[in-house]
Amino acid sequence: MNVKNLLLLVDPQNDFCDCRGALFVPGADEDARRTARMISRISSLLDDIVVTLDCHHVLDVAHPLMWVDALGNPPPPFTVITLEDVKAGTWRPVRPEWEDRLCRYLQDLEALRRYRLTIWPEHCLVGSWGFGIVPCVFDAVTKWEREHKETATFLLKGENPWTEHYSAVKAEVPDPEDPRTGINHSLLERIRAADCVAVAGEALSHCVASTIRDLVEPLGGDLSRLVLIRDATSSVPGFEPVGEAFLEEMAPLGLRLESSERFLA
Question: Which domains does the chain have, with CATH numbers?
Fold first, then answer.
């Protein structure tokens, strides 16, 4: 019986994986190199590759330009903004007419109890160097394409400025006016069709965690076909406990952990 193996690479981009990146995740440079070596080693065993790409504009709900304090100053990166902060006037949208919409967003986001709104440095801006795939991973993926005469799939997420889009499956709070933020049914079908889905990329605490969490319900609560390449993913600094809590949460659901050297060895 032929086993179908899918590799899901989450946001292997310069802004996360290069020390010069706007939102460098310590360890992500080595994660990328290990990922590239793994792809080369198991190329003949990989049937499908999907690469997600974080994709933003300067104006974004999680970028400083969207918000100001009472004196008109933008929030510094890593500021947390809550609905209560907006109601208290600590932070407000840079344009007053956006307040109702953003208050609804914060209310919906906080009700999910996954993340609070964190303001990030401007990162993965469309067309920028930081948006690009880190070269070692890009070279490994394109080499696989040449060897298999196939195309890897590149999925953009995050371009809608009104919602965060950590997960490859859907935005944190889908925008009903933008189908790009809803459930990616095509991706779910490919994952369901695979016997084994390896997941690697950045960051464990956010985009990797959100992607896998959003697969729990579509896969009926059984994550046994998913393998997280543990030495090919790292957490955003300060969010390491979030990443570890995610691993503990997923373990009873069957999520397997494997190293890049042992996977499919």
Answer: 5-56+123-258 (3.40.50.850), 64-118 (no CATH)
